[in-house]
Fold this protein.
Amino acid sequence: DAGITQSPRHKVTETGTPVTLRCHQTENHRYMYWYRQDPGHGLRLIHYSYGVKDTDKGEVSDGYSVSRSKTEDFLLTLESATSSQTSVYFCATVSRPLSGANVLTFGAGSRLTVL
Amino acid sequence: GQQLNQSPQSMFIQEGEDVSMNCTSSSIFNTWLWYKQDPGEGPVLLIALYKAGELTSNGRLTAQFGITRKDSFLNISASIPSDVGIYFCAGHNTDKLIFGTGTRLQVFP
């Protein structure tokens, strides 16, 4: 699984509190992604990173920020969690952009519940 | 946002039966991928398709890249209990990977 570790695996928090999810990879992959998974929506891209300090928005980026200070770590932050952000969050990596040769490898997921 | 239409949403089959599911889009994709997700885990790649019309097998799984580049199909032959899970299609276009909504498969002995 490309050495991807997500933490925490489970978290319950209250509305309005900040939350940070961590993705750690040991493969020195350049590209990293954060997705959220919700029933009926499949996997939707939140943010992605194409290198240290280089990040960009995905299709559902509102309410989320990310940081990549080291190749191996990609952090997803909810500044003020809302109930609509209750979801399962997946980190993924790929060694280079999808070019017909490489594909995404996913972590095990972080289940977040916002009460 | 852009999504792929995946069907059926769920399937309940008996062990030994064959399974077919598909994914359609209004957009053209350059690559089609099929993933399987086990409960409590992240999706794992099953098959990748890179050319229109391509037919690729992985054991009991066979997937096809539609000739129009707007659809893809996944077949599972002689299903077994460990085939249970959610199957996702994904289409790649330029720098974006778009996922389908998933097909939940239940296999009864």
